[in-house]
Amino acid sequence: MMPLGGAWGLALHNQLCGRGCSRGIGRPHPGALTAEISEHQKPQIRTDWSRGAASMASGILMNVKEEVTCPICLELLTEPMSLDCGHTFCQACITAHSREFMIGRGESSCPVCRSTYQPETMRPNRHVANIVEALREVKLSPQEEQERDLCVDHGEKLLLFCNEDKKIICWLCERSPGHRGHQIFLVEEIAQKNKEKLRAALDRLKAEQQEAEKLNDDLEAERTSRKVGGESFW
Question: Which residues form the RING-type domain (predicted)?
Fold first, then answer.
């Protein structure tokens, strides 16, 4: 169909648009554009926006999970404890580490940055605990479950662990300049070693606790015996 022009085109345009409109025949009216977008483009725009928002949310979720993952056991933090340097660990993990890697004068060093700390200065991080609790309740779709273990930079599976940076990486990260010359291990290997160390340390702690409880029971028995005999315990 040929476009209308001249007086006939202008008359028709003024009738549809209103006499106050100063737009020319060759330029589309904004109302017509809006109608066209509403009918033909809005569903696609809405779909694309939803996909983009979902992808962004998934990426944010994965970044948050990385921030609340224990650097020792590589799992979501359980009873998070923070050091003065700012790094946070599971209570059981950092307690076991403190006992195993005591460096003198009752001090230990942070597994991440090697800053020294006194075990009694460790403090519960309730803010992080609340974040972990909320994350545990998040239900991921099958696609998000699959993407959860992918590198946010390269989209590859996170199968390696950088010992220097204490970070899970992919094979492309390993080849990047940022990790060149670093000690790289398989995640499964590091996780198994850390679990074995943690289990051994927990066994030692349990034995020490039992010994302390037995000593306390012996002291209580001795105190009771002396009270019965009329002797002063101290």
Answer: 70-114
Q: What is the CATH number of the domain that holds 178?
A: 3.30.40.10
Q: Taking a C-beta distance cutoff of 8 angstroms, is the pair 151, 169 a contact? A: yes
C-alpha 156: how far from chain center: 18
| Cβ-defined contacts of 147-153 (< 8 Å, 24+) | 147/58, 147/62, 148/58, 148/61, 148/62, 148/65, 150/62, 152/59, 152/62, 152/63
- Number of CB atoms found within 10 A of residue 77's CB: 23
With a cut of 70, say whether residue 192 has pLDDT above it: yes
- Nearest by Cα to 94 from 175, 208, 201: 201
* CA–CA dist 33, 14 (Å, integer): 17
Residue 46: phi and psi, rounded to 5, are: -65, -40
The pLDDT of 205-232, averaged and rounded, is 76
- Tell me if 175 is assigned to some domain: yes
Q: What is the pTM of this model?
A: 0.42
Number of domains observed in the structure of the chain: 1
